[in-house]
């Protein structure tokens, strides 16, 4: 779990180069991961969707393009990131802390958070807040990095801690911006542990879908229809 002031400072400093850095560092895989998330979201057929920690708007913009009938709102607590999202075409945005969203209960059919929950100060509190704004029967999707197991574990860990921070520093102009990334991924609950956390936060039917051998994972869950 992260210090909000540190996270805000880091993302404010790299906002203008964040999109390019993500594509390069993941070798374009982040685009494929969002496409997989879109297929899941499309199956839910939401009317209103909240993209939390939207950042520069990658997932929210993808939803708007693929599912134009969905009313999408993107929120983030970092204004420079939102400014980039608006420049890229995401006009419906709200500057807000994901831990305390200034939004009514039961207001959205779906909520998404891509590569953002891992940067929050309290995962459980954030997940409970996301559930609050979901309508009964509403769906949550979390896309984030995880740690692969088996043959990929050792080379990926080496890349994560020894190569990625240097490349990211060169791309963003902030050599320290990604120093914390490896540790944040290592300590973020994954697989069954994250599904258990979802259950403890009141969600039903949690699932985990590993991507590229577990380098990233899509988690889904649902708010009870009776709430």
Explain this structure.
- With 227 residues, this protein is an alpha/beta fold.
- It is built from nine helices and seven strands; from the N terminus they run αααβαβαββαβαααββ.
- The chain has one domain (4-147, 189-222): Rossmann fold, CATH 3.40.50.
- It has helices spanning 4-14, 18-25, 29-44, 58-66, 79-87, 123-133, 153-172, 181-187, 192-200, and strands spanning 48-52, 71-76, 93-95, 108-114, 134-145, 204-211, 216-222.
- The protein has a seven-stranded mixed beta sheet with strand order 3-2-1-4-5-7-6, with helices on both faces.
- Helix 2 (18-25) packs antiparallel against helix 7 (153-172) and helix 3 (29-44) crosses helix 4.
- The longest helix is centred in the C-terminal third of the chain and has 20 residues, at 153-172.
- The mean pLDDT is 89.
CATH class equals Alpha Beta
Please tell me how large the radius of gyration is. 16 Å
Distance between the termini: 28 Å
Strand proportion, as a percent range, falls in 15-25%
CATH topology: Rossmann fold
Number of strand segments: 7
- Low-pLDDT parts are none
